[in-house]
Amino acid sequence: MRLHEKNKKHSVPLRDPHQDMLAGIRELAPEIKARAAEIEAARRVPPDLVERLRSIGLFRMFVPRSHGGLELDFPAGLEVIKALARLDGSVGWIAVVAGASSLFVAASPPELYQRIYQDGPDTAICGSSQPGGTAERVADGYRVRGRWPFASGCTHADWIGGFCIVTENGKPVPGPQGKPQVRVAVLPARDWEIEDTWHAAGLKGTGSHHVTLRETLVSEAHFFDLDAAPRQSGPLYQAVRQWLPLVHGAFSVGMAEGTVDDLLALAATGRQQLYAAVPMRESEIFQYDLGRISANLGAAQAFHEVQAASHWRHALARTLNDEDLVIEGARSATWLATTCVGIADACFALAGASAVYDSSPLQRRLRDLHVAAQHAHAQQRQYVDVGKLALRRSAGHAG
């Protein structure tokens, strides 16, 4: 036997961190499902469960290898988000925040980035992209004040960021295209005040409270600009806005998959609804609607997969930083949110009266998907830009 053949025969295969993460999620799945009511009641993911998610690599999945992270390919990271959303909406949303936040801070200067990850790659980061604060220029940096909504995951975050309108003498400083300049302030979580405001219709367990800074002096070293040139070298870090709608889409698809799982589990019990001639699973009405739902789910899965693959090809080719790709991503996120809400509505209706109880996962899926569809990345108004892009491309082809 040749030496290289012998070594090949007895070598230990390299571990795949992506597959390790999915295996960890499968192992954690029964506990996540069993604790859904606890997560909702606490209005946050319990600290011990956050630590379990941390241990499987959730917070490091998009962190560069240079800083100890996994630096997963973007489609692989989306699979992780989908797998967690399939189990529980609030846990899935926390996964969205974990992935998106680490991509956001990749735009920060090296000194700030090093500070954020000085204790390792498993740092939990959250923030609010609404410009809820002002940053008044002063001699030592900026005087920041504001109140930011929807800071999902702030109860377990290590660092929190908020978008600020830059001002001088109380007036907004003009930025690109004449709009006010916006910068991101990032500080350790201990420097922020969390207001207990998250009493919501869905995604109850995400801890999406308001966070506040009151006349806080923040040095230049704790600010960054999203439109700055890429600070990290890998394909993940060329741009941020192009990725965000696809992360939202992964949540929608994972939730829709979980909703169908829950409906099939109910049908498997042999449940027969009041006045129905046969059990649900034997009813042709149920079978017809389930077939239609399955087709919609398959279309959503395929659309998201194609869009993610397209964006990743652009990232590998270094052509991701393109405004048209933001619009393409918004098109997919909006359509996916609408389609997956429709799937949840149909599953809830098929389940009958039993689905109205808090104990039913189907009512929770319904609420979570409707709330997620209210997000700016999934709003129907996005179709205006999509239509404009279609017209512009059509005119280009005609020319």
UniProtKB/TrEMBL annotation:
Keyword Oxidoreductase: yes
SUPFAM superfamilies: Acyl-CoA dehydrogenase C-terminal domain-like, Acyl-CoA dehydrogenase NM domain-like
Pfam families: Acyl-CoA_dh_2, Acyl-CoA_dh_N
Superkingdom assignment: Bacteria
Domain Acyl-CoA dehydrogenase C-terminal: 246-379
Swiss-Prot/TrEMBL keywords: Monooxygenase, Oxidoreductase
Molecular function per GO: acyl-CoA dehydrogenase activity; flavin adenine dinucleotide binding; monooxygenase activity
Acyl-CoA dehydrogenase/oxidase N-terminal domain segment(s): 18-97
Protein name: Flavin-dependent monooxygenase
Species of the source: Bradyrhizobium japonicum
Taxonomic lineage from the root: Bacteria, Pseudomonadati, Pseudomonadota, Alphaproteobacteria, Hyphomicrobiales
